Amino acid sequence: MPVIRISAGRRRRALALATAAVLAGLVAPALNAPTAGAATTAATTAYDDTYYAAAIGKSGTALKDSLHTIISDQTKISYSAVWNALKVTDQDPNNSNNVILLYSGISRGKSLNGGDTGDWNREHVWAKSHGDFGTATGPGTDLHHLRPEDVQVNSVRGNKDFDNGGSSFSNSGGSLTDSNSFEPRDAVKGDVARMIFYMAVRYEGGDGWADLEVNSSVDNGSNPYIGKLAVLKTWNDEDPPDAFEKRRNQVIHDSYQHNRNPFIDHPEWVESIW
Question: Which of 165, 149, 50, 36 is nearest to 101 (CA)?
């Protein structure tokens, strides 16, 4: 058998790599490993073996159906109860007396909730006219898509679909709008996308409400659709879940509805379903 000779330099390099791995208690990473935190990278959460057990390993329609069953087991709250819930779910981490407004990013006093200029009110991220569910208990009171927002900014958004482009406006915080669409500020683009995807999975038309779906259009009017799908998918990828969004998901699960937004826990499931 021929003898394979390894140069002293190569031996030293191999030994150095092996030693470093042992000292760190790690195995050297594989080449071309996915970037940490990317939305397309499969994640593992503490709920995979319990809450999501029936969904793990599935994809496409089977995954969507399984998630619908899982998240439909929830405690519903009234629209009036949403006020106090938002004061907890959206509390400013730097000021416990305030909430963070979704589109504008402003920190505003919890007590300033109402309908006057300078107040914050309850924004339906999935516009309640898209499916005509109003504020009735159910999709109209689901905390996973209700967020505090400045009264006037809420009015600017109205029931517009989501897309890129537009112009700034007062208290926009970087959000933009045009005649038929709304683009939230960069820091919450993914949050908005994952709320929309949650609603499209949670409300499938089997419980007396419209079958909500994401499509590729704007100007959806009162139809139970919101767009644009490709844009929302990009936002989900470019703005992965942060600590604020994860905490919010946990608070809703633990203290209010006892269900989760699966796309916060597993943002890669967006691509699997859509």
Answer: 149
Q: Give the helix/strand (H/E) hosting 24.
A: helix 8-24
Q: Which residues does 150 contact at the CB level (< 8 Å), separation at least 6?
A: 101, 103, 104, 106, 108, 119, 120, 171
Cβ atoms 102, 184 nearer than 8 A: yes
Q: Which amino acid is at 192?
A: V
Based on C-alpha coordinates, what's the Rg of the chain?
A: 22
Dist CA 225 CA 130 (whole Å):
6
Phi and psi dihedrals of 175, rounded to 5? Answer: -70, 155
d(CA 105, CA 108): 9
Q: Which residues of 63-101 are buried (b: 16+ CB within 10 A; e: fewer)?
A: bbbbbbebbeebeebeeeebbebbbebbbbeeeeebbbb
Crossing angle of the two packed helices 243-251 and 79-89, in degrees rounded to 10: 140
pTM of the model: 0.85
133: number of CA atoms within 13 Å, CB side? 26
- 65-83 pLDDT per residue, tens: 999 999 999 999 999 999 9
